[in-house]
Amino acid sequence: MLIRTEDLTKTYDLGEVEVRALRGVTFGIEEGEYVAIMGPSGSGKSTLMHILGCLDTPSTGRYFLNGTEVSDLHGRALARVRNKEIGFVFQNFNLLPRVDLVANVALPLVYLGGMNRSDRRKQAEGALDSVGLGHRLKHRPNELSGGERQRASIARALVNEPSILLADEPTGNLDQKTGREIMAILDELSGAGKTVIIVTHDSNVASHARRTVEIEDGAIAREGRA
Amino acid sequence: MNLLESVGAGARDMASHKGRAVITIVGIVLGTASVVAVLSLMRGGEKQTEDFFDEMGGLRELRITNQHSHDIFQTAAERASERLTYRDAQAIRRECPSVLTVDPEITEFLAVAYGEKTFQMKVLGTNRDYPHADNMPVAEGRFITDKDCENYANVVMMGPTYKEDLFGEEEAIGKTITIEGIPFEVVGIMQKKEFYFEGSGGSDRNVLEWFNRSHYIPITTMVRRFTVNDRLDGLEISATTIEAVPALTEEANRVLLRRHGVEDFNVESKSDQIRQRNEQEAFFNIIFWAVAFVSLFVGGVVIANIMLASITERIREIGVRKAIGASSRDVFIQFLVEALVVTASGGALGILLGLGMVALTDKVLNMPTAVTPGILLIAFGCSVAVGVIFGLFPAIRAARLDPVEALRYQ
User: Considering the domain A31-55+76-225 in this protein, what is its CATH number?
Assistant: First the structure.
């Protein structure tokens, strides 16, 4: 099992009040699965995504990723896990505006270390080519359409060959047609054996996944398989 | 991410935020430039003082002066003392192992005549050590020798201005002039001595002109012909090496104290005089330093501010970097290196500007300046230090940002 969580909780201490964002989430994701995590805003799905993506740590409970317990890791070790195991795709792309696409996509390799600049650029160019942006290498993000930007961010997420592709509302900032193109890419990646997790409130998007996990009020409310 | 890549990234970031970089750099450029200017001015002043004393005979010299109470307060011992005499000078030469030259001086204003011309002129009785001790080369002929002193010879060496006054363009060596009616043979002409203090309006006055307006005769001749005793107006001695100066000071004090029976003299080294002069200038140096410090401080505050502002502007970027694998340390290094790239380039530009300012000061204000590699190194070091000190806080702020918060930031 690629991902296994045991009774994850997350409590935010806001002084007077405690906010319990997660109230005990136990589930697993097999390698190669295509999973949608759904839920309305405030349900705790974002918190769960942050923990699954190693951006945040649970208050209690355990999280095993690829056989390693990561719930105890902090700082540099967690940054290392994010770098090697997780590829993020954000709703608003989050590309660095002042550098070209190759530099953007090569960024995870910079933090991975051990590669020289030209090797990194070569690998980044390969990733951009695989999402159909081989002709846009030297462009900056603001010279591209929304769909192209999201494809670039998928290329960035893939460049390190992570075990999980974690997409947070990947079509949220795109029109329907472009959104479908992006989902087609994710479908294709899943078909090729990549583990893909989509966090969304859009049931059309979720319908692409073969399994849905619905979060409500900090806990899993329903699970379903297509 | 290794350091070299961080520097490259910092440089690229700076290049992509030209406006921000320019504003940030201005403070550092000015600060560094003022450090260069200040240090060069300070060094220039010191060097001029050193050059002046060097021209006056170097640092191996000791000046011995009379130092006694006003007549009515004098003790019996002081009254009994003959003060500094030519015999003292001879005793120092005989008894002090560390002495190289002994240069006793008696100055009189006497009637000097050549042909139809007669002037009241300064005549200095001295010995062969005078040009050596006071660093004065001979232009023509020779200086006074030991033999001249032994023989009470009537020979004269002329300063170049006096030679002009008496002879004009005419050849003087071998001619005879009279001093108070006594014939003296001209045996040599001194080279012209010049030194101009730059700045403070005194630039056109040759402060060494008194050397040029003097006749030099053997001190023994002076004592026998023109004075009632052998009391000296000045006595300058020099040590065999600079290191021997303290020993010679001690030896000369001992000899003179034994001969005078009372300490009515003062032995002072040139380095004492230089130190005094530099202490006088220290006050101005403090002001200069304050100016440079304030400029650098302002530059640093500007950097810290702009970097903090740029962190706000780049919170999302920091979040993204962290999400894709940057550790806090990576972010810290990135921001610190960016600050360093900015301040180091500012420092380099500041050095250029500073050199320009120094050249301008030299040319327009006519102030003495001296640029040394050490000064440039210090100035560059200051700019880098400002980068580290004022880049630290923003870099820590950036590194501590929580990735989740940072990504959520709009």
Answer: 3.40.50.300
CB contact under 8 A, A111 and B325: yes
Query: Rounded to whole angstroms, what are the CA distances from A139 to A105, A108, A130, B108?
Result: 12, 19, 17, 91
Instruction: Give the minimum alpha-carbon distance from A54 to chain B in angstroms, rounded to a whole number.
Output: 8
Mutate: best of A88, A104, A110, partner B, most B CBs <10 A: A110
Tell me which residue of B231, B245, B337, B378 sits closest to B6, measured CA to CA. Answer: B337
In a domain, B238, yes or no: yes
Supply the ipTM of this predicted assembly. 0.90
Is the pLDDT at B216 greater than 90, yes or no? yes
Q: Are residues B177 and B201 in the same domain?
A: yes
Q: With residue A153 as reference, give the H or E element that holds it.
A: helix A146-158
**CB contact B7 to A (< 8 Å):** no
From the list B13, B325, B404, the residue facing A108 with the nearest CB is: B325
Q: Where are the beta strands (DSSP E) in B181-224?
A: 182-190, 215-218
| Residue A23 burial (C-beta neighbours within 10 Å; 0-12, 13-18, 19+) | middle
CA distances (Å), origin A180, targets A150, A156, A171? 12, 20, 8
Do B104 and B241 belong to one domain?
yes
Residues B140 and B238 in one domain: yes
Q: Which of B100-114, B241-255, B268-282, B389-403 has the lowest mean pLDDT?
A: B268-282
Alpha carbon distance B119, B111 (integer Å): 6
- Is B63 part of a structural domain of the chain? no
Mean pLDDT of A129-154: 87
Chain B residue with minimum CA distance to A82: B325
Domain end, chosen from B236, B263, B290, is at B263
Q: Report A:63-92 residues touching B (Cβ under 8 A).
A: 75-76, 79-80, 82-84, 88, 90
Number of domains in chain B: 2
What is d(CA B322, CA A100) in angstroms, rounded to the nearest whole number?
19
Beta strands (DSSP E) in B192-264 are 215-218, 234-239
Instruction: Search chain B and give the residue with CA nearest A162.
Output: B324
For residue B157, pLDDT beyond 60: yes
Same domain, B79 and B205: yes
Position B269 in a domain: no
Do A55 and B320 make contact, defined as CB atoms within 8 angstroms?
A: no
Residues, chain B: 410
* Domain match, B109 and B150 both: yes
If you count residue pairs, one on A and one on B, with CB atoms under 8 Å apart, how many are there?
65
Cα B231 from chain centroid (whole Å): 34
Domain assignment of residue B59, yes or no: no
B49 and B73 assigned to the same domain: no
Q: What is the mean pLDDT of chain B?
A: 83
Domain boundary among B215, B238, B263: B263
Q: Could you list the residue range(s) of the whole structural domain that residue B368 is in?
A: 3-54+277-408
Facing residue for B404 by CB, picked from A56, A79, A83? A56
